[in-house]
Specification:
It is a single chain. The protein is an alpha/beta fold. The protein has 15 helices and eight strands. Helix 1 (about 5-20) crosses helix 3 and helix 3 (about 40-55) packs across helix 5 (about 75-90).
């Protein structure tokens, strides 16, 4: 199989599984599909997969402009991915169309239909890149649960929801921030946003364990606690991947870490090892704890709608989140 076709077929399978079976990008089966590829291809797969979900409404609007019949899920996913690559990522036109046609053949989709639609889109690619999404293009469940938003808030959401999020880094202390080799926009004396987004594991100091990636909103509560008492007992109830716990540990305070997800516990332990932190980690439901604590952090599992830019599959999945 031609390399470009193989990699894009992986992308198709990942997107199809997320859309059809309501999986998240961090689901173990999805990560397995990603990691089955060569290391040099994984960045490409992540880029196209995430971008296809972020531009879902844009690409869907483009499909509706050129396709009047009802299309099957495989056709829809294949066109969404190809449109994202052609119109919004500006990838090589021949490679995208040729690979999409070859994937259509493998999936027993009428490849002539895919070829014809993509070639029509190609002719108006520049104009289509400026396609406008309004709040009414969003799913009904989104519109119904955001009735309290002002027109300005809705406008700001539409402008930003599909954009790649900035990377926010938290350092063990202000001295580690000063040593950091990349340009950073400070958000506090020991945290900041990367000026140039890049793969964090490619940054030289990543292996040193002096910092971790953590959303600004997630870091804000602990960062604003002026004093932690080392004599008190601390618990992080839903700890993985560990950002809030790392903030406490970096201030020399012990904290017990609980999480009931085995896969998330594995990530937590890997993070602790890289950061050279020691803490009691338990794969257990925190509701079953009999010990008493003075200070408890609860960043409970949720729909993640507030982090839509980092979790674009929320809008992409066929089922809406279980808000109740």
């Amino acid at each position: 199989m031609i390399k470009g076709v193989k990699v894009r077929l992986s992308i198709h399978n990942i997107l199809f599984n997320i859309f059809k079976y309501n999986k998240t990008i961090n689901n173990s089966s999805i990560q397995k599909l990603i990691n089955n590829n060569k290391l040099e291809d994984i960045a490409f797969i992540n880029k196209v997969t995430l971008s296809s979900m972020r531009y879902y409404f844009h690409a869907k609007k483009i499909i509706n402009k050129y396709v009047k019949k009802r299309i099957k899920d495989h056709e829809k996913i294949l066109l969404l991915s190809a449109i994202t690559q052609l119109v919004f990522l500006n990838f090589k036109e021949y490679a995208v169309i040729n690979c999409s046609v070859e994937i259509a053949k493998k999936l027993n989709i009428y490849h002539g239909f895919i070829n014809a639609v993509l070639k029509k889109i190609l002719l108006e690619k520049k104009e289509l890149s400026n396609i406008i999404i309004t709040f009414n293009d969003l799913p009904l469940w989104v519109r119904e649960t955001t009735k309290n938003l002002t027109d300005l808030q809705k406008e700001n959401f539409i402008i930003n929801f599909y954009k790649e999020p900035d990377i926010h880094i938290v350092f063990k202390n202000k001295f580690e921030l000063k040593k950091f080799e990349e340009k950073i926009l400070k958000s506090s004396e020991n945290s900041g946003f990367l000026i140039e987004n890049k793969r964090v594991d490619k940054i030289k100091s990543f292996k040193d364990g002096s910092w971790w990636v953590q959303d600004f909103s997630s870091s804000f509560p602990i960062n604003n606690l002026k004093r932690l008492d080392n004599k008190k007992k601390y618990l992080d109830m839903c700890s993985a991947p560990g950002g809030k716990a790392f903030q406490i540990l970096s201030r020399g305070v012990e904290v017990n870490l609980y999480d009931k997800s085995k896969s998330r516990i594995k990530i937590l332990k890997e993070n602790l090892k890289r950061l050279n932190f020691n803490a009691e980690v338990k794969n257990n439901d925190a509701l079953n704890i009999s010990k008493k604590y003075d200070f408890i952090i609860v960043d409970a599992p949720c729909t993640a709608i507030g982090t839509i830019r980092r979790n674009p599959e929320i809008f992409f999945k066929s089922n809406k989140p279980d808000l109740k």
